Amino acid sequence: MIVLKLILESFNFAFSSLKENKLRTFLSLIGITIGIMTIIGVFSAVDTLRNNLQSSVDKLGSNTVYVQKWPWEFGGDYQWWKYMNRPTPTLRDFEKVKERATNAEAVSYSVWAGNRTVKYRSNSVEGAEISAVTHDYYKTWSFDLEDGRYFSEAESKVGSPIALIGFSLAQGLFPNQRAVGKDIKVMGRNIKIIGVFKEEGEDMLGTSADKTILLPLNFARNVIDIQNEQYGPQISVRGKPGVPVEELESELKGIMRSVHRLSPKMDDNFALNKSTILTAQLDSMFAVVNLAGGVIGIFSILVGGFGIANIMFVSVKERTNIIGIQKSLGAKNYFILLQFLIEAVALCLMGGLIGLGIVYLLAFILNIVTDVDIIVDMSKVVLMFILSTAIGLISGIIPAFMASRLDPVEAIRSK
């Protein structure tokens, strides 16, 4: 109880000093506030960016492998001149993979043609992306329908002139009308709309289906060369539940090497891409960004810490006479030490709380203005308390120690 009483008295002395010197307290808070706001703001911005990118990556499917010409890996050692000479995936590759892949739940072949203008009477929408797919596409890519239905197997097989369109296209072409059942012209052909994708919104990888026109591959093959590289042919393979993606990837590698008749000494002339490749790259990229943000924030906090230490030295000098009186009345050294440590920590915590509050306010405003979900989780609150307490202890320990070691007689005589 005595120890608790002494700590409470130390708090009272510290906060009395802070209240008596409001301007000095405010100026001392600025450095810590800016430092905490910087480091928490940078980490929150990085977390927000990472979360949005990861959400985009998750759409690709954690157990789906994409057989393509170009690998998703990038960097200084990206051998584009080597990849450029690779063949594009063909329908023969697709048929062989579908026939031989025992770990695959579904296999689909798809091509796309972007930046098209679609018209319906007097309405038009620019930037539409036309995708032509085999029937099992719905098993290898996750999507929801706002209205209508997907292709039937018979429609896919005969190449019926039908399509599913994105939500934005439906809104732009058929305002206040139902899109399903209407006819539009795509690639010079009349197409009947049988379904509308649910609105997804634009993500950071551009994988939204809001401006997509999805056609049966057997219809598109009568209009374009579906094996031409300009249409980005790819084979999507979704693994069976419980099958590790590495096992599926290993099987696909063997199948593709066999289909392409590659000898053991020859390099792969195809790429097997998966979401974990992008995730790994995101991890390495954001590790660097976090480090850079941390360094910037730490320097900002250190500047604030030096400001707090300077103020504490001034505070000790001003209260030397009071310290002498306290000691002459029996105050112990640790009681004097606690006063100044608590004052330094309190200053830093106040600055940290203000900085954190500013970050939350900015996040709230940005959420409203930009409709982006800004992430400031509880770990940042804990980080703020840890950093503020640590800076307060480091900044205040030397002035507090000097104050606790003052000779009471000399201290009372000081002016």
TrEMBL record:
Membrane-topology descriptor: Multi-pass membrane protein
Keyword flag Membrane: yes
Record domain MacB-like periplasmic core: where: 25-253
TM stretches of this protein: 26-46, 285-313, 334-362, 382-403
Cellular compartment(s): Cell membrane
GO cellular component assignments: plasma membrane
Residues of the ABC3 transporter permease C-terminal domain: 295-408
GO molecular function, a single term: transmembrane transporter activity
Keywords: Cell membrane, Membrane, Transmembrane, Transmembrane helix
Keyword Transmembrane helix in annotation: yes
Family named by the database record: Belongs to the ABC-4 integral membrane protein family.
Protein name (Swiss-Prot/TrEMBL): ABC transporter efflux protein
